[in-house]
Each structure stands twice: as C-alpha cells, then as structure tokens.
Amino acid sequence: MPAKSSKRPQISVIIRAFNEEKHLGQLLEAIAQQTFRNYELILVDSGSTDRTLAIAARYPVKVLHIKPAEFTFGRSLNLGLQAARGSLAVVASAHVLPLSRDWLKQLIAPFEDLKVAVAYGKQRGGTGSRFSEAQHFLRWFPERSNLDQPNAYCNNANLALRLTLWKKQPFDETLTGLEDLAWASAWRERGYKVVYVAKAGVAHLHEESAAQIVNRHRREAIALKRILPASRFALWHFASLFLRSVSSDFAAAWRQRAFFRHVFGIIPFRFLQYLGTYLGYHDVVDPSAKLKQVFYYPPGSLEDRLQKKNAKSIEEASRKSAKA
After folding, report:
1. Is the pLDDT of residue 170 over 50?
2. For the sheet containing 39-45, what is the strand order?
3. Helical segments of the chain, H only
4. Over the stretch 98-113, which tens digit does the pLDDT of each residue have?
5. DSSP class per residue in 132-194
6. Closest CA relative to residue 116, chosen from 191, 199, 9
7. pTM of the model
8. Cα(192)–Cα(194) distance, rounded to whole angstroms?
9. N or C: which end of the chain has fewer CB within 10 A?
C-alpha cells in the first residue's frame, strides 16, 4: 500500500459507504490512476458487515466510522468534511466509477473562479443499470457543460465543493435526502455559482430492489417538500409523469433497437419511482423515528433487523407498562 503523504492535499475525496464490497475496489483503483495526484482519501463507513473495510485497507484511505443509529446523509458528509485537509472536497458515491483518468482534474477546474461554490459531473448508467435510470441520467446530465447554472440542481454522487464555504454552513443533517441541493441553493442565493462539468463523468452503478427504489424516491420527496414547502405532488402528477416517462422510455428503447429487451423493466421502474415520490409528499408521519430502518438500510440487512428488533422490544415494553 502506498505510504500516506504528510503534504497538505489540494483536495479531499470523501466517499460514503455501507456494504460496498462489489464496487469500492474499482473506484479506489480508478482514483489511484487519476492524472491529478494531490489528494487525500477519506471513507465514511456506516456499519459495513461485508469486505468494504478490508478493501479500503489496501489503499491510503483514512477511515471514519458513523454509528448506524446516528446516520443521515448530511451527518456522514459533515463527518468526512470535518476531517478534510484540502481546500476543495470531492464527494463520490462508493458505487460510481470514473469514466476517464482526468475525472478529478476536470471536476475541480471551475474553482479557479472564486465565485464557484459547487461543481458536479456527468453520470451515466453502467452494465446492469436499469434502462429507465440510464435515461434519467441522459436527461439530467447532458453532454454540454454549464459554467453558471440557472438553478441549484446538483448531485453528490459526483460533486466538488469549496471547503471554506462548507465551514460557514455545513450540510443539513436533518434532511432525508437532497442535502446537496439544499446546500447549493443556499450559496447560489448569496451570489455563488453552481457549475455542471460534462467532462467529469462517472458511471453510477445502482443495483436496487423494488423496496429500495421506492424508499430512495420517498425520502427525496420528503426532503424536497421541506426545502420547497409550496411544492405539490398529487395523483394527477403521478399519472401524468408516469405516462410521459414510460412513453419517452419506450421511444428511446425503440430507437436503440432494444424495445423488447427493456419493455418489461420500464413500467415497473417508473411506477416505483413515482410511487415513492407520491408517498413522500403525502407522508404525514415524522420520519425521524424510522429513518434507519426504512430509508437508509436495505431490507434484510443487519441494521434493518436490529431496528425491527428494537422497535418490537419498545412496543412490548410499552404494552407491559400500560398493563402495570
């Protein structure tokens, strides 16, 4: 394993992980091959029970731990950024794969402009990605860069930010998602820029169950409802977006001569996506008590089982107390 340098890095690469043994090694190896070399690696692990930590140990990575009971996306990011020594931070999902050796160089290039707060890069699907999600990436991450985006959209699966600004305002640890959008929005309102860098591309390798698809979009909708209280998502939004998205996916699949290969995957994915969004907008229960079980940990995982066991114990204790 290469020796860790005492030289102050220009950028700190923050990776959040939970049971990422399948993809983490590929990401760390791709980072090791980058043309830009002045960086440090920080992994924030939230209770992995597979080989994630063993894989990280092969590389010059500083590993930080966050207890599953304390986990939120914003809190884990803040933990990693607190340990960062660079002037810029790059945040990457543990299941992305850079598409070029210039990924880091391209992603941080816009920060020569001191008014840039955030830069985020292109995402594409990979082998095994769902067709509809690949279409989503094509829509939201075009081939042309935008050096002064007119809105605050960004995505911290592949994102860089200015650490001096983060120190003034850390990520909101109470949001169930979209903490990146909320942070970028706050700085854009103060006159800073949000930049999209098409050349800083990654393959985003989502492999989710039906429940995970619903939960991801549900927690993001809960967060969006908090960020934009006036926004709405009624049944007619559900139906309209579902029909339009399915029609668009069908047309794209037909153009790519892959219609019959993907037709039976398009409808379920789009239904689950908008079902999750609808549930999030209409969730009247404060989600804080069930975040770890429902939103952050896959069904059947160790933490999921522990959460259910704890919930059952609390329920039994409450019944005993009521009878006493």
Report:
1. yes
2. 61-65, 39-45, 11-17, 88-93, 158-162, 116-124, 193-204, 96-98
3. 24-32, 52-56, 73-82, 103-108, 131-140, 163-168, 179-188, 210-227, 235-255, 259-281, 302-323
4. 999 999 999 999 999 9
5. HHHHHHHHHS-SS-BSS-SS----TTEEEEEHHHHHHS---TT-SS-HHHHHHHHHHTTT-EE
6. 191
7. 0.85
8. 7
9. C
